[in-house]
Amino acid sequence: MGSVRNAAVALLLFGAACAGRAEVPADTLKVETLATPHGAHWVYLMDVSFPHLSEGKIVVVDADRREVLGMMTTGFLAGLAPAPDRKELYVTETFYSRGVRGERTDVVTIYDPAELKPVGEVVIPPKRFIALTMPYGTVVTRDGRFLLQYNFTPATSVSVVDLKSRRFVGEIDAPGCTLIYPGAGNRSYSMICSDGRLLTHTLDDEGRLASQRMSEQPFFDPDKDSLNVAPARLGDTLYFVSFLGQVHPLDVSGQEPAAAPTWSLLKAADRRQAWRPGGWQYVAANEKLGRLYVIMHPNGRNGTHKDPGGEIWVYDLKTKARIQRIRTKTPVVSVLTSRDDAPLLYALGAEGSLHVYDARRGRYRGTVAGAAETAMVMVNP
Predict the structure, then answer these.
(1) In this predicted model, what pLDDT tens digit does every residue of 270-298 receive, in sequence order?
(2) Which of 207, 288, 315, 381 has the fewest beta carbons under 10 Å from its own?
């Protein structure tokens, strides 16, 4: 009798639970359209997604509100270059016919920034540089006409895509040279070569190679002190920072790049404590403030140039003096500043959080915890 009574009670409870669940309204999913152009304090996080590399993502974050607004799912180790007029986003992606194997296809995908949806694509040769996402691997010319993609097979070259006609133009050989640094006007770019010299290409109006020049003298000595090849750009000057803390300014405003005198980030006391720059995108510059921001760590040695740092050192680019040291909430790997009149400083934590600071005063504004899984690079809208 007891077992029958227990069964009856159980049935009543089950029925009540089912009835209770039936009263809960179903969730209604909705798709929001983002404001365009994207805000001055929005930032794109390039998440290579180590746990599932074949499917990465680009996360869009509002740094003022400290919240994630949306994301784009991408192919294997994607690159990103926003259009200069901010009306489109260009993502270079790699896919395999069997997911993680099979025939390889490389594409430039055109995204609508309002809905973060693909609206077109251009197939390019399956040669693009596949590694942890690097700044200056995918760039757009200043007038927005051509996209340039750095290739590595291991032969090095540049693929040119006409964004106006949505077609692949061709491939330009660049033996022994790396990445793409846009130069003067709308049609030139330079690349750093293995011996420290600079190769400069100029394109014609169809995107074909019109001229090329190799610098006579090396820009730096790669055997003595290598550079981080992800410089900060301020107008027409690129600021490269070496593994030992030397700043190498490069003026790209003329027909050929011109190296300016180098200077050191470090004082004697800093050297005694073996402070060194480190991270991935470890240097940023802000044009409004005329400042350079560098991630630093103590007890540096050979091989620590990719280690995250617990401080960001700030320099006045006119006086070349250090004016501030910002202690970060967690060790960080990448820095970037917004480009408006009230600039923010973004610091990407090694654990995936985005820390936000006032770029002028260095005051902490807040953190977007878990903004990404394994983001390495940040890009401004």
Answers:
(1) 999 999 999 999 999 999 999 999 999 99
(2) 288
Report cis status (omega within 30 of 0) of the bond before 261: no
295-303 long-range contacts, Cβ below 8 Å, gap at least 24? 295/332, 295/333, 295/334, 295/335, 295/347, 296/265, 297/331, 298/273, 298/274, 299/273, 299/274, 300/274, 300/275, 300/276, 301/274, 301/276
pLDDT band at 12 (very low <50, low <70, confident <90, very high): low
- In 3D, which of 42, 43, 45 has the Cα closest to residue 374? 45
Asked if 56 contacts 77 with a C-beta cutoff of 8 angstroms, the reply is: yes
Tracing tokens 């004697």 back to the chain, one arrives at 268
Give per-residue burial for 21-49: e unless 16+ CB within 10 Å, then b. Answer: eeeeeeeeeeeeebeeebbbbbbbbbbbb
As a whole number of angstroms, the longest Cα–Cα distance in the chain is 100
DSSP 8-state secondary structure symbol assigned to residue 352: S
Residue with tokens 């190769």: 199
Report the distance separating Cα 378 and Cα 351, nearest Å: 15
Whole-number Å distance between alpha carbons of 378 and 369: 16
Nearest in space to 194 (alpha carbons), one of 169, 215, 217, 177: 177
- pTM equals 0.91
Which letter does DSSP use for residue 27 in this model? P
Residues 265 and 360 sit within 8 Å (Cβ to Cβ)? no
